[in-house]
Amino acid sequence: MKISCEKNVLLEGINIVQKAVSTKSTLPILEGILLKAAEKLYLTGNDLELGIECHIDADIQQPGSIVLDAKILGEIVRKLPNDRVYIEVEENNSTYIKCGNTEFNIMGIDANEFPELPYITKGEKLTLKQYLLRSMIRQTSFAIATNENKLILTGSLLEADDDSLTLVSVDGYRLALRKEKIDSLNHKLSVIIPGKTLNELSRIIKDEEEDIYIYTTDKHILFEFDNCRMVSRLLEGEFLNYKQIIPDEHKLQVIADVKPLIDSIERTSLVITSDNVKAPVRFKITMDKISLSCITQTGRVQDSVQVETLGDDLEIGFNHKYFLDALKACETDQIVMEFNTNLNPCIIKPIEGDKFLYLILPVRLKSE
Q1: d(CA 248, CA 338)
Q2: Could you tell me the end-to-end alpha-carbon distance of the chain, in angstroms, rounded to an integer?
Q3: Gap between the Cα atoms of 208 and 205, Å rounded
Q4: Is 200 helix (H, G, I), strand (E, B) or coil?
Q5: How far apart, in whole angstroms, are the C-alpha atoms of residue 97 and residue 3?
Q6: How far is residue 117's CA from residue 239's CA, in Å, rounded to a whole number?
């Protein structure tokens, strides 16, 4: 293999596929990036759960392939001068890299040992704008479970039905739901995508109008966009019946401006440290006002924010981080909050429509 390409183009490709490279594996080849020179230069990372391939423009003088350690290759290219990079694979997989006055010789691994990405039959496809999918992931990924004991909840449920697409995350303490209108689909879709896949995808796709194409099989999902394709295993099993846990009635409704409420919760939580991280922020909701307070060994704080209320007074406590995560994901100036009792979850949704919904379980309050 003998190729040359621009340093910045190569580095961008490495940075993308590196997200699918295993950092610790019993198979050293999974810690590498496959470079394959054909009509273009293809770069691939694959940890057997997630695989990413992208192609970049290069001058292919001699086709071929090699697997190079991802960390070493990434560091080398990152430190090279902004010039054209020449890569040549010599005998016994020794790889020569030259850029400007800098030359490296590193050992590679035979590319024949590198696992191929799963083949996905391209049947029905779902087409979305990249910025839209990125927004949906950002507004729900914070509620993906990290506890491996609830493996099915370490992913998000993606559902498509008729003309709407829904992405849902649940971690046992909160729920995040984002819905978007789409062009009518000829098929229903219901898959559980690992959280790692969604987080890495959101870092790669752009906040722009370009399309992303989604294909699914029983076990895998394929995302195609720009010069990349990402293939991921799906989580197998039954997702939580989230519709069943969303209350359809409420005794108290609160309309609030998002930023003042965020500011108030952030101030109130300043006395919560790593020693008392489970201390709740107390919401005392009365006529057109929420009084917020928190008492820990560090100190005590009181604050308040003006709101519009309709219904009974209520005193309820929440994990401040969970509440802030939801408020910061709303992407709207005002929200509606719905409550029942101090043991029932709070629902956060937009003033109009059903674009998003957040559910947060309360923390049981101790009497002062």
Answers
A1: 10
A2: 73
A3: 8
A4: helix
A5: 10
A6: 26
Task: Sort strands 189-194 and 2-6 into parallel, antiparallel or unpaired.
Answer: unpaired
Report the length, in residues, of the chain.
368
Alpha helices in the chain (DSSP H): 7-17, 70-79, 130-138, 195-204, 242-245, 258-268, 320-329
**CA–CA dist 300, 7 (Å, integer):** 55
Q: What is the pLDDT along the chain (368 residues), one digit of tens a residue?
A: 999 999 999 999 999 999 999 988 888 999 999 999 999 999 999 999 999 999 999 999 999 999 999 999 999 999 999 999 999 999 899 999 999 999 999 999 999 999 999 999 888 889 999 999 999 999 999 999 998 888 999 999 999 987 899 999 999 999 999 999 987 677 789 999 999 999 999 999 999 999 999 999 999 999 999 999 999 999 999 999 999 999 999 999 999 999 999 999 999 999 999 888 889 999 999 999 999 999 999 999 999 999 999 999 999 999 999 999 999 999 899 999 999 999 999 999 999 999 999 999 999 998 65
| Beta carbons within 10 angstroms of residue 250's beta carbon | 17
Residue with tokens 């902004």: 82
pTM of the model: 0.94
Assigned token pair, 301? 């704080």
Continuous H helices in 168-310: 195-204, 242-245, 258-268
